[in-house]
Design brief:
Layout (H helix, E strand, L loop, with lengths): L1 E18 L5 E21 L3 E4 L12 H13 L4 E7 L10 H16 L6 H11 L3 H6 L2 E5 L4 E4 L7 E6 L6 H7 L11 H10 L2 H6 L2 E2 L2 H7 L2 H11 L4 E4 L6 E5 L2 H10 L6 E6 L9
Parallel strand pairs: 1-8, 3-4
Antiparallel strand pairs: 1-2, 2-4, 2-5, 5-6, 7-10, 7-11, 9-10
Helix pairs in contact: 1-2, 1-3, 2-3
Length: about 290
């Protein structure tokens, strides 16, 4: 049996530069892996690809990104191998944390190893791009600047280790619907991607907090005003800064350490939201 950890992500910045001819939006965003993960277990099978999801939080059918990633890799490699896959979910669903993309990325990476297909990381990233714009980042992980649809990556120096309080309201958000509703005039403060990159390179936590920005936040907040309330409550609980991740609706609060994040979470006044504590993750950190 082979085991993989599929790590969630947050967006420290997310800017939209315009609409592309293919209908997608041109984005520029600083992405960061976090320690929260889903766990996947892979067992070789002669030909069949099957998926089980204890708890049934997501589909276990062929439309799941895990099954699609496995089928795509097998087709690309021209093999007939199969796999029995078990997906244990910890990352909230439809939350703006890239859980589905992370699961697909872990599947591509681990089946490439289990099946011995010998496909390079750049090739895997190109395959992943066919399934979702965040999958190339999830394959590489760490800290990165993402451009294009999100698939064009520039590796950045590791972000300083930060404690995080994630607050997920009791509803999900469709990424497509948020992008569809986006209008430039909704963005009152444009994200400063260059300033965020400088802050990360300088390891200046204060500047990282000051340059948090997400052009999609006002769109999701217009649909769900609870997002603004969550931000306010995180700041009231002691977070250094707070921002919606991706298309939302999860909001993360930043702390100087995991211990500080735990204290913020204990002070947070929940109104039915799911409150989770984690931290930023880069490869030099040990353990799962």
């Amino acid at each position: 049996m082979f085991k993989a950890y599929a790590r969630a992500k947050i967006n420290l910045t997310l800017d939209i530069l315009g609409k592309r001819p293919d209908g997608f939006h041109q984005v520029e965003m600083v992405m960061q892996s976090i320690k929260m993960y889903d766990q996947l277990e892979f067992t070789p099978e002669p030909e069949t690809i099957s998926l089980t999801v204890p708890g049934g939080e997501v589909s276990d059918r062929s439309d799941n990104l895990v099954c699609r990633a496995a089928s795509l890799l097998r087709s690309y490699a021209g093999i007939k191998c199969g796999a029995r896959i078990k997906l244990s979910k910890e990352i909230p669903v439809e939350a703006g944390l890239g859980g589905g993309s992370a699961d697909a990325a872990a599947t591509l990476m681990m089946l490439n190893k289990m099946w011995g297909t010998g496909i390079s990381l750049p090739e895997l990233m190109l395959l992943g791009e066919k399934l979702g714009s965040d999958i190339p980042f999830c394959l590489r992980g760490g800290t990165a600047l993402a451009k294009g649809r999100g698939e064009q990556l520039e590796v950045l120096p590791p972000c300083p280790r930060l404690g995080l309080v994630l607050v997920k309201p009791p509803f999900g958000v469709s990424t497509a619907s948020v992008y569809y509703a986006y209008k430039p005039e909704l963005v009152l403060k444009k994200p400063e991607t260059g300033a965020m990159i400088k802050a990360i390179k300088d390891k200046n936590v204060g500047d990282i907090v000051r340059n948090l920005g997400n052009a999609l936040e006002p769109v999701t907040t217009m649909m769900h005003p609870e997002v603004a309330n969550i931000k306010e409550k995180l700041l009231d609980a002691g977070a250094l800064g707070a921002l919606m991740s991706g298309s939302g609706p999860t909001v993360f609060g930043i702390a100087t350490s995991l211990e500080a994040a735990c204290r913020i979470a204990s002070r947070y006044q929940s109104s039915g939201e799911r409150v989770l504590v984690t931290e930023t993750y880069n490869e030099e950190m040990s353990g799962p």
